[in-house]
């Protein structure tokens, strides 16, 4: 326990909590005036849409991708839109209470595998330091960041230590938590790490991501992936999909096998509209304005990519409502702080496997790039103290959702369905890596291959009916993978080209 007079700018107090309609709890008061928000790396506006629903006002957006820019202009025609964060000057930015940033994750994503991961030194994620350049100059009250869970172990945990150091040294208290969209009202398992940095206020940073009561019992992690649901079009899907990927409808790494949609004798990938629903966007969100020139092959590739790179809107909406309530409450903090007990009262989740460490003791190793740590799934960092624990990815009130409810009302055209070649490739790869497919999908894939006249071959051992002549199968590309342990028995860790 560390009792002390509150350092300038740092605070601690309790505020009133009430149940929110979307589950969990949030500060009781609402905003008297709109919360000003700047959205960096805005994508198609997942953060923006969530803060809109929480009563915020989008003051500026920054996004480099031309297709994403067209979607932002469609939904926020009056917001200032700039393209390149590297060229953005602080004096060009309006004042805002909250900055959001889903900074690019290609260099730390689990789908790349350890050998393909460049961490914060990569060309994409190094844009984080452009964000810090702007933070240094403008010092917004709140930063809300999102990234893949791989950020916690990128470069053996050193990269996440750098992020904490960059924020703490600028006077921010920082909380982080791995949260899974499946518990917030969307039918996909999408774990992501959210980071909330609050200028000089560890209480508010903690309350933004954690509730003062334990999370709900999540039940069986496996059940959602094997329970079957049938749609009026004849489609059969598990109750829960896995991640919507940013690969033109083709799923990479650990996320492909449970997002396909099965029929008795066919398998297809989700349509762009279904992918939007699985991310919590309204259907048609990424349909561009008529003035946007259409590529010869249509907009599907751009829509898949942009939706797959987006945040799950309901998770951000849950956080945005909490942030808005905290800002509106404007609670005066007492002069004393009590670490780590204050944090553990505000976030009882962190009492699971709690670890406390001194930032001063690890700062030199972080700067030298030699720091090694397996960060836990939740924590709070304030000045010299870091408190972390094994936090649940769910709120105190889970919002259920079903994959089948995200499906389109009519069966799509044949361009979304897998060829026999793709079906054979999936079955063969599943055999190689020893994974288990969703049963209706496995049966349908076998039927597709058999109907096309593909013939099994004897390669030694039991083929199980899922080995086929080499002349008719294009090899699948293996991608080294990592994932939450609860998902490992369900996915094959490969990329299948679905022609």
UniProtKB/TrEMBL annotation:
It comes from Devosia ureilytica. Residues 1-29, 455-485 are annotated as: Disordered. This is DNA (cytosine-5-)-methyltransferase. PROSITE patterns: C5_MTASE_2 (PS00095), SAM_MT_C5 (PS51679). It catalyses: a 2'-deoxycytidine in DNA + S-adenosyl-L-methionine = a 5-methyl-2'-deoxycytidine in DNA + S-adenosyl-L-homocysteine + H(+). GO terms for molecular function: DNA (cytosine-5-)-methyltransferase activity; DNA binding. Pfam families: DNA_methylase (PF00145). The active site is at 105. Belongs to the class I-like SAM-binding methyltransferase superfamily. C5-methyltransferase family. Residues 11-27 have a biased composition (Low complexity). Its EC number is 2.1.1.37. Keywords: Methyltransferase, Restriction system, S-adenosyl-L-methionine, Transferase. One of its GO terms (biological process) is DNA restriction-modification system.
């Amino acid at each position: 326990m560390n009792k002390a007079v509150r350092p300038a700018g740092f605070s601690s107090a309790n505020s009133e909590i009430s149940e929110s309609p979307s589950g969990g709890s949030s500060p009781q008061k609402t905003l008297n005036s709109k919360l000003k928000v700047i959205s960096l790396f805005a994508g198609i506006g997942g953060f923006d849409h969530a803060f809109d629903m929480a009563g915020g006002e989008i003051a500026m957006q920054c996004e480099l991708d031309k297709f994403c820019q067209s979607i932002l202009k469609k939904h926020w025609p009056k917001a200032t839109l700039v393209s390149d964060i590297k060229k953005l000057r602080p004096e060009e930015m309006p004042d805002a209470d909250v900055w959001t940033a889903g900074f690019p994750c290609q260099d730390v994503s689990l789908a790349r595998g350890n050998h393909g991961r460049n961490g914060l030194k990569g060309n994409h994620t190094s844009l984080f330091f452009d964000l810090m350049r702007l933070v240094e100059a403008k010092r917004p009250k709140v930063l809300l960041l999102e990234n893949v869970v791989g950020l916690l172990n990128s470069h053996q945990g050193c990269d996440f230590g750098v992020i904490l150091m960059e924020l703490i040294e600028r006077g921010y208290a920082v909380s982080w938590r791995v949260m899974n969209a499946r518990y917030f009202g969307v039918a996909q398992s999408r774990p992501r790490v959210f980071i909330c940095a609050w200028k000089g206020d560890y209480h508010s940073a903690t309350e933004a991501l954690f509730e003062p009561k334990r999370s709900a019992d999540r039940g069986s992690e496996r059940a959602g992936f094997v329970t079957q649901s049938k749609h009026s079009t004849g489609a059969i899907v598990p109750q829960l999909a896995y991640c919507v990927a940013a690969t033109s409808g083709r799923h990479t790494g650990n996320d492909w096998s449970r997002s396909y949609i099965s029929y008795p004798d066919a398998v297809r990938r989700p349509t762009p509209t279904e992918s939007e629903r699985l991310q919590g966007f309204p259907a048609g969100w990424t349909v561009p304005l008529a003035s946007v020139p259409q590529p010869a092959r249509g907009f599907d590739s751009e829509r898949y990519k942009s939706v797959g790179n987006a945040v799950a809107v309901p998770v951000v909406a849950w956080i945005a409502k909490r942030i808005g309530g905290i800002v509106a409450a404007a609670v005066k903090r007492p002069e004393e702080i009590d670490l780590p007990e204050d944090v553990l009262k505000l976030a009882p989740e962190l009492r699971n496997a709690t670890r406390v460490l001194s930032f001063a003791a690890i700062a030199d190793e972080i700067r030298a790039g030699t720091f090694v740590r397996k960060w836990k799934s939740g924590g709070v960092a304030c000045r010299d103290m870091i408190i972390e624990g094994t936090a649940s990815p769910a709120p105190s009130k889970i919002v259920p959702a079903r994959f089948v409810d995200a499906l389109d009302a009519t069966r799509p055209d044949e361009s979304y369905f897998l060829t026999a070649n793709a079906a054979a490739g999936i079955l063969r790869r599943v055999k190689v890596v020893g994974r288990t497919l969703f049963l209706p999908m496995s049966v349908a894939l076998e039927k597709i291959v058999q109907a096309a006249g593909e013939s099994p071959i004897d390669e030694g051992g039991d083929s199980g009916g899922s080995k086929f002549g080499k002349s008719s199968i294009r090899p699948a590309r293996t991608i080294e993978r990592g994932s939450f342990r609860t998902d490992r028995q369900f996915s094959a860790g490969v990329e299948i080209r679905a022609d």
